[in-house]
UniProtKB/TrEMBL annotation:
The lineage of its organism: Bacteria, Pseudomonadati, Bacteroidota, Saprospiria, Saprospirales. Belongs to the glycosyl hydrolase 20 family. GO terms for biological process: carbohydrate metabolic process. The keyword Hydrolase applies. Residues 1-20 form the signal peptide. Keywords: Hydrolase, Signal. One of its GO terms (molecular function) is beta-N-acetylhexosaminidase activity. This is Glycoside hydrolase. Pfam families: Glyco_hydro_20 (PF00728). The keyword Signal applies. InterPro entries: GH (IPR017853), Glyco_hydro_20_cat (IPR015883), HEXDC-like (IPR038901).
């Protein structure tokens, strides 16, 4: 009798599970796609992608990372004059509505207020919000570095910061006509920093939870739900998940301090870590987020179906679904998707392949 390696048998089993799952849009409560918003000159091509690719693959939720790529009127000092207009957003919104797709905006709050050698728009215009003003951005960024700089954060205890950022949040949610908002809040390395006169010495978990709660409560007043990435709520050391997909600065205890209606987007890209169970057992709704490894993503998809199938009635609906993340710009991704540039990295991994593997079109399922 021919013998097969256990790893091969396991992957065959997982593939069988994937193929056996329902392919309709209702097979999971959330079948999502997250990508940076296109530039104004890329909206028409992106609308085509919504109609011809997202809709036929049963996507029902589209998260667009907006940040300051929009012509804000509530805070014109934070607007990008060449960014998306209200008409651009309306064009994408109409295409989504034709196919039952909800569109959710993302603006990074708390963390990701800089990138490598450049400040984001918020700290450019309001340097007083900087949690670490003494940390200077290097001309040539390298990681690791002596300052522990990945991205800067704003100070969550600055008395004026929320008046500013909530104007942005409210405006973009109204333009998107959205009942949800994604605040990012991932990879926050600067919080409760010794340089900050307000945050220094405070419990970092309480600071993080306080900011999550404040944003959540603001959104709740307009019947909107807060979504965040989940990495800061995982103990990176105890789990071995590490400092990117988990926290090394003790923010993870915030998981027990935040409101239970915050949706957690739990991202794991190298292994199918089953942290969704952890979040669901903490009482939080959760989606699992793959990126560019199709085999890992297939296991994550099968796991999500399995969690929902085996969970108690109380737990089941906390397992919300799958969210494909794309971490190149919209234009670059569409170039990859339509064969205008290579889509595999040096290790053969591909966010295009990953997306197509877990969200095939009905015609592809029959092949």
């Amino acid at each position: 009798m021919k013998r097969y390696p256990l790893t091969l048998l396991f992957h065959l089993f997982i593939l069988t599970l994937i193929q056996a799952q329902p392919t309709t849009q209702d097979s999971l409560p959330l079948r999502g796609f997250c990508i940076g918003a296109p530039g104004a000159d890329g909206v028409e091509r992106f609308v085509k992608f919504i109609r011809e690719e997202l809709a036929p693959r049963g996507i029902n939720t589209l998260i667009l990372r907006i940040d300051y790529n929009y012509q804000y009127t509530s805070r014109p000092e934070l607007a990008n004059p060449n960014g998306l207009s209200k008409a651009d957003v309306t064009s994408m919104l109409e295409a989504c509505r034709e196919h039952g797709i909800s569109m959710v905006p993302q603006v990074n709050l708390l963390g990701h207020q800089s990138w490598h050698g450049s400040l984001g728009k918020l700290l450019q215009e309001y340097p007083e919000f900087d949690e670490t003003p003494e940390v200077e951005l290097p001309e040539n960024y390298e990681w690791p570095n002596e300052d522990g700089l990945y991205c800067k954060s704003y100070c969550p205890l600055h008395p004026d910061v929320h008046e500013v950022v909530f104007d942005i949040v409210d405006e973009i949610c109204e333009v998107f006509q959205s009942d949800a908002f994604h605040a990012g809040m991932d990879e926050v390395f600067y919080i409760g920093h010794e340089q900050c006169p307000r945050c220094n010495g405070r419990d970092k978990a309480e600071l993080f939870a306080g900011e999550v709660t404040r944003i959540r409560n603001h959104l709740h007043q307009q019947d909107r739900q807060l979504w965040i990435w989940g990495d800061r709520l995982i103990d990176g050391k105890t789990t071995g998940i590490g400092l990117w997909e988990g926290s090394y600065n003790n923010t993870h205890r915030a998981v027990d301090l935040i409101p239970k209606d915050v949706l957690i987007c739990d991202w794991h890209y190298e292994r199918p870590d089953q942290a969704a169970v952890y979040f669901a057992m903490k009482g939080l709704p959760v989606v699992t987020c793959p990126w560019r490894n199709p085999e890992v993503a297939k296991v994550q998809m099968a796991d999500m179906y399995r969690f929902r199938e085996s969970a108690t009635p109380v737990m089941k609906d906390r397992f919300r679904g799958i969210l494909q993340t794309i971490w190149s710009g919209s234009d670059a991704f569409l170039d990859q998707y339509y064969g205008l540039r290579a889509h595999k990295n040096e290790n053969g991994l591909s966010q295009v392949d990953c997306f197509q593997a877990i969200f095939p079109k009905e015609a592809e399922m029959k092949k």
